Amino acid sequence: MIKVTLPDQSVTEYEAGVTLGQILPNWNPSLVKSTVAGKVDHTLVDMSHPLMESVTVSFVDASSKDGLNILRHSISHVMAQAVQESFAGAKVSIGPSIEDGFYYDFEYKETFTPDDLEKIEKRMRQIVAADCPFSRQEMSREEAIALFKDKDEPYKVELIQDLPPDVERVSLYRQGDYVDLCRGPHIPSTGMIKAFKLLNVAGAYWRGDEHNKMLQRIYGTGFATQEDLKNTCGSWKRRKEEITAAWARISICSRSTMKPGRV
Q1: Dihedral through CA 158, CA 162, CA 163, CA 166, nearest 10?
Q2: For residues 20 and 185, is the Cβ–Cβ distance under 8 A?
Q3: Could you give the CA distance from residue 16 to residue 84 in angstroms, rounded to a whole number?
Q4: Which pLDDT tens digit goes with each residue over 219-242?
């Protein structure tokens, strides 16, 4: 048996191998729907993480800073799956969470359009509705290289090959039929995604090096609730309108003070 210290400082004994996902419903079932991950002795882990020794645990809400980062990174994986399922031949590179959302870089023969983003969002909503579990898998770097070579994913192969020599094993995450190289953690399942929006497409050199291939970066954002998404998008829209109006006023003032002269 192991002893688990819970957030209220109570201590409960469990069989070794128990997961955070098994502990939470017994401790506080009201938190299950909003909890995206956990912390074991201050280290972020998946809810499926097995506990093998006595530890202190806490739980991460989707609306917290850590929770939003995990949620958005999971949404980026869903976006990558949607892109590859919607656009044959698209290759993935990296897709982290960022301060206001997330992005993923793709190599694709055609330029993604606003209509394409709508198509990707539609497929993402289907993946979310399927409520696919995020499952972690570890394998040797040689096995991972072989896997991504077989999937014709050269960017993933390069990332693994460039890991330090002492890294012998890597972690991958799957949701449905999609697999990605990733340290994690991730939300328990795609069904926990409630609010997201794809924003725009920009160019980005692979690894930020202008000598490398130019990829297409799709930006998006995500929140714990639709209300948070709506409020934030409304603020962005108002800010854009304010900037546009300010530039218009500057332009009018500049024209009114101009004097005729020789060119």
Answers
A1: 130
A2: no
A3: 39
A4: 999 999 999 898 877 655 555 555
